Fold these 4 entries.
Entry 1:
Amino acid sequence: MKHDNDFNGESGGEDLIDEQAAAWFARLRSENVTGEEKAAFARWLAQDFAHRQAFDEISMLWGDARLKQVLSEAETKSTEFSRLTKKTRPGPRLLLAVAASLALLFVFRIELAVLLQADYATKVGEQKTVRLEDGSSVTLNTDSALAVTMQGDQRTIELLKGEAFFDVQPDAGRPFIVHGEYSITRVLGTRFFVHKKGRSDEVKVLSGRVEVTDGQRWRQSVVLRDGDAVSVDRDGHGETGRLDTKLTTSWLDGYLVFEDMALGDVIEQVQRYRNGLVIFKDNSLRELKINGRINLRDSAHILQTLEKTLSVKITRLSDWFVIIG
């Protein structure tokens, strides 16, 4: 990407701005963006017109509607910030250093806070099965973390992020409880999934019986049985649905299985297992339906696998920045 503005004519300025814009873009696509991060993004936008140019170019390529609200808020805040700091704003080189630091700090701050609380965690692309002291087992999916409390009659799990599959040993005197962001799941003995997605939790039962309660409002609970699934957000739980067993469980065997799924949804799933950013140059490709199976144990070549099965062009600008179309 090219920009008219540069920082004191120093070489590499444009590339660094592009990298910062890409870092902010990736962070803002997350569903758990905080108010502090939005404010920091607004300050970054206000620091130089080139920042907005770079971010706009990436946004146009992606066409992501989820960014519109954040951008609208940031636009207002950046105007206020520009007015307040017009006479006291530091020089461009210092601004550049601050912007780069903010981008890195806000990406890693949440990760550090989660890891400090976690008893078990996985990296992006990693999966891990752990045996708990009560004989139950938990399999953590990619980029997931949980904290475990096993004291007296308590068997409590806090899913800090990501997704986990629980195979629970029955113990009538010690209910097994999993806390998500919005949900509390109680079980005596069963096999089920909990996925903390940012704006909602998904609970899916492979076998057995669980009770899911809205952890925020403590309204009426819902009971799930074999093959049931429910989503819970700040407004409570939705209607009980049926899970697609193959799609839901395939990651346990190291694969992602897709059946007549839109490419945009496939990429969203794939991105959970690899670092970097993937954008669509042609948004119509998002609706392309595909079938197939992807080997998660070879995460470095996930996109190459997709490219071989699709008649679309995939351009790699770097190891972490890929354009489809």
Entry 2:
Amino acid sequence: MTKVTEFIRQAEGKTLFSIEIIPPLKGQNINELLNSIEPLMEFKPPFVDVTYHREELIDRVGQDGLIERIPVRKRPGTVGICARLMERFHVDAVPHIICGGFTKDETEDVLIDLHYLGIDNVLVLRGDAEKSAGVFKAKQGGHSYASELVKQVHDMNQGKLLNAETEMWPTNFCIGVAGYPEKHFDATSFDTDYAHLRKKVELGADYIVTQMFFDNQKYFQFVERCRAEGITVPIIPGLKPLATKKQLSVLAQIFHLEFPDELVSEVEKCATDKDVRKVGIEWGIHQCKELVAYGVPVLHFYTMGKSDNVAQIAREVF
């Protein structure tokens, strides 16, 4: 297996292509997901990210007639999907590791499983809050911050387990973390957000992947500020082609981002989502060409299980 940072070094300044996929809902056929991303393999992604998802709480009526809150993991299988990806497409898999919904011991077990599989890359994230909670709260015995999780992974790279009853053969994880060009919504200011990001790098993060953005100036400013803060690791831009008019409000609300006025104006002129999809592809091509000219190490696409619009953009750029 090859580390993400090694792929970037070996590219010698050439921009690489990568994607992120979401595990299918519990019980669905994984082949549908694999078939949907197969057309993207022509662009030779050296690695593919696979998201991890915490449990969700659902209400059920118990035998006593009282409502019980039952935890359900709706999108399991990240580790298994990583193994299938490596087998079928001969690419490196980058599983997401999250704080939310996991104890430190559970996280350690997952990391050991990944180590046994020969997976040397992980993207470390805090993860989302429970939908019913509104604010993030760590599971008892779990991590509250991504920086704590970075430290745990880095400690395992040094051969340190949570409990030292056995000798640990050091892992060799390349650690990615998230960055937010438009500020993490929980951060009180840009200054604190950059301070938190710098801490993650100081604790062992090897590279950064940004939240999606639609204004390249936000990314350029983010990189400049990171470098001014002494953050020197590679910064990979995260991208998503706009596909529906509804996404203007949905993505802005969920990911706390702004759309450029020019893009909003073009989308508002569209009569159908088919027209919006075309605008999204054209905007994506322009974004990507400008980012490649800037010298980004990787164009990383959030596919959401779809590939046709990403493929159309990639054909114009790679």
Entry 3:
Amino acid sequence: MSDARIQSVRQFNRFYTQVLGVLAEGLMDTPYSLTESRVLFELSQRDNTEVTALRRDLGLDAGYLSRLLARFESDGLVSRGKSAADARRQVAGLTESGRTTMKMLNERSDTQVRELLAPLGEEDQRKLVAAMDTIRQRLGKSRQDNTIVLRPPGPGDLGWVVERNGALYAQEYQWGSAYEALVARIIADYAENHDPAQEAGWIAEINGERVGSVFCTRKDNTTAKLRLLLVEPSARGMGVGGRLVDECLRFATSIGYRTIELWTVNVLTAARRIYQQRGFTMVASEHHDAFAPGQRAETWRKDLYDQ
């Protein structure tokens, strides 16, 4: 990782903490620090919380959290007691005064964000919020369950397939507009002419984020085609590509196709490995310089009648 990236993250952290004023002695002109406000917020989300769970969720030192709760209890904001399930465990919850204080903190926080966004136009607000969502999603991946969900393409998904194919393969293999134009033609034909009884597409999602796609289209009455398998770099190694190919094979078999084919390029080694593992064999190969010099186009085929 480059020093420049590290410094960019640190610079952003310094900027944003200054914007929010979290370094001040009291957050938003209140007697409470950012950490104290966060503890109150977590307590406000449920009636009673086991202190050990609260400490684990917030990553706080046990002694520090105990002192915070003691202060809140002294101020009348928090009540503490023993867990009904295990008397050895302590639980904490907000009092009515604590909930009133939390309501005040929420209102001030909402006002602060409104004032932060107000000078920006609608488009700039949308871009800013989208960038914040991206930061949260990327840095929060390790705490998410990473369940792979496959669904049919919805509004905007086909355009996303074209955009991501064009951007990813340009970045990774220096493929230019010729490849993106091919993807656009395939997608346009699918959108306009596909028969739902014989063709289908799938978008893979993890934690609500699109991470892959594949399509099963008709070549003729007995042969299906697997097309446009794509997996985002952030989801590689998680089994997304295999799930997409398996779903395509399942669909083609259920429709009654006897054979399935696909067309690929020799440099796409990860995809080729998935095809080999599922019984595809390469039946043709030829020079293909349309996307980048020195590459080979390959046709792979698999019989489905024994599925």
Entry 4:
Amino acid sequence: MRGAVLHAPGDVRVEDRPDPRIEQPTDAVIQLAAACVCGSDLWPYRGIEAVNGPSPMGHEYVGVVEEVGSDVRTVQPGQFVVGSFFASDNTCAICRAGYQTHCVNRQPGAPTGAQAEYARIPLADGTLVATPGMPDDDLVPGLLAASDVLGTGWFAAVAAEAGPGKTVAVVGDGAVGLLGVLAASQLGADRVIAFSRHEDRQRLAREFGATDIVPSRGDEGVAEVEALTNGLGAHSVIEAVGTQESMLQAIRATRAGGHVGYVGVSHDVSLPGEELFFSGVHLHGGPAPVRRFLPELIDLVCTRAIDPGRVFDLELPLEQAAEGYRAMDERRAIKALLRP
């Protein structure tokens, strides 16, 4: 099969790779209908995370089940499925509490890489969710979004306790942040403030439900949120970047007693203990338990109640995966979709 491999920072190649096969009786092999480049893929691409030899890339995926192991019961060949970036059994005590990304049997969701023609999915019964029939092609981008960025933005909004009567601020205008705006709006927030300096992302944020746009960052951005909230700050803040500046901005934009839902993959974030102690702010987040939300999100996409696939503003054939990485790295694209 053909698959994307990261050899070194800035060096993505689409190569011939071994076809994945069933290795455990709980595995499935799927033929990918679509995959994409994640913001977290850019950390090793930029050299911020170490690249230890050639690495198959991709963890967001939708496709058709090709083959299942002997112990798989909930999905079968021919079904269109959506999975999560972590594989989980969905039966352990942690999974039953809704934190499948911390499953006691947690594994990479697509260890063979999802930016490819085929992928092996471990723990298929707990990881994959079938759609109601074969979806129309125009729904595929939205279902792909559900496998990570929509589920992550949704978890961030839930962790921040977005809902009716709340003002929600969103730090980060990448795909996760924009879908955090959509999630907060869907969850009934009265007001959604999006931090964004980019006109195209501001426009999409408004289409997803943002009521206010704040182009400033850092303490200046915090001051603007306070000005919009009678000096109190937002009830709920989504942090969707993962840097020191973005985390402090999120905490400082939150009113006492409010909640921060943080889902940006943290890099060198160090929180000042005294400031955190006196902030009175709740912090909750980490790798999103996408599997918890998949049935609901698949239904919302398939019934066309939401259209999260609009975050994909660049679609390329798999063979041009390197251009997808370049476009996102250079901020020429919000998110690149790859078609095998």
